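User: Before I run my own analysis I want an independent prediction to cross-check against. Here's the chain; please return only the structure tokens and, at the end, one sentence I can use as a sanity check.
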Amino acid sequence: MIFDPNCDHCQRETDSIITHINKFKKAQIIMVAYLGHGDMLDFYHYYKIAKYPIITMGSDPKYFFPTFYQVHNLPAIIVYDKKGKLKESFDGTVSINKIAAALN
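Assistant: Structure tokens:
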């Protein structure tokens, strides 16, 4: 998930993912913020990301991921299978059910 810690849509998507974390038991979630590291840390603590071992959060100060994935809207969610093959990508807010379905 490519996100901006100050984006309302990204915050709601994160709320939804955490609320439905049981749908992602077999997934590894990587959250990448491309803005300020301090804002990302505040987001990390606010959502208590450390409680979820399947979530890893990092920053992308060089703006690599939004450019590579040609992101137009946030949050951007990119789904890969276990073998590293791109399955689906979502630009902007997407339902948890669509994300979960892409994982299967």
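Sanity check: Residues 2-103 form a domain with the Glutaredoxin fold (CATH 3.40.30.10).
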